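Question:
Now give any protein.
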Amino acid sequence: MATNASGLFTTPTVPSLRGKIKPSIRIFGSGFRSPDGISKRVFCSSTFEGAEKHVGASPSESRAPRLVSKGCKLIGCGSAVPSLKISNDDLAKVVDTNDEWISVRTGIRNRRILSESLTALAVEAALKALEMAEVDVDDVDLILMCTSSPDDLFGSAPQVQKALGCKRNPLAYDITAACSGFVMGLVSAACHIRGGGFKNVLVIGADALSRFVDWTDRGTCILFGDAAGAVLVQACDSEDDSLLAFDLHSDGDGNRHLNAAFKESETDELGSNGSVLGFPPRRASFSCLQMNGKEVFRFAVRVVPQSIEAALAKAGLPTSSIDWLLLHQANQRILDGVSSRMQIPSEQVISNLANYGNTSAASIPLALDEAVRSGKVKPGHTIAAAGFGAGLTWGSTVFRWG
């Protein structure tokens, strides 16, 4: 099964059912819509190359949609942050900057820096989400670790699974999409539940980009912090489906504006991987994070409103139906720019940027967890969330909490 950018869940080609299902279903991005106008919250369809040529085809030539009755809902959240707090004044001692310069341009005043393992931080957030959801760790059948800074090059998800104490060896894997990662994780969880029969999926966003920041570059070192956040996505009846729609995109051409590329050593000394035969790579390493702030800002304020509006259209909802706008916490000016373009009042925008900075894949679940536990976000509230960043990638999803 796969998804496409329009938000449809697609399945491989299946044999014809010989006319048992009439070709009278119209497909929308938010699911199936029958001729009577009743939207059925099922994100699954059968699509194939050249489908438009088969409109009106005989039953033996058509391909029938495979209906999946399960929906999914977000029922628990949790977060964790490192104990080490670095203020703007602290940064001013090591780089040419000051609190006013940083706060005016970004809205950031503090950030947390990881000194322990990212896996431990992710596990702490996950356990809190499970506790809120009242789900036992052995009932989790999938763990999605959204991170671009794992403790292991091969991924941290299996280590999270081990540390949680999962006895049934559920599938666990990493999703690498930096600041867009958590939204991609939510959509992936929905795919696994609706098309794969999974019941309880842990989606964890955790990053420690402080590991890749150049602390002599005041243009980037002031922005990033470390954190972890998690949600428990659970299967439910289709009529109770709470993940209403999504919209996902990527543009590799924009990679030049935001990246942390693999970097080969230019020296002749023995590399850390023991290469002595005269061919690269001599040393396994990545460059520090490189970012063109002005271009990333222009990109975000342009594509994020478009993506959210597309997701709302697929869900059949107006902008006025949004209770909360929850954006990746990158820069307060971006939050303000997107909310202004969408005419969403600032009091409906969730922001904790001042306390944590840009925590990459952790920023959305971290902000959501604080908003839920403070009582700001209540069960039944409709949230439009959007992530954007490295790749370049961006995406949005519309869901109801609880």
In short: The chain has one domain: 71-252+291-401. The longest helix spans residues 293-315.
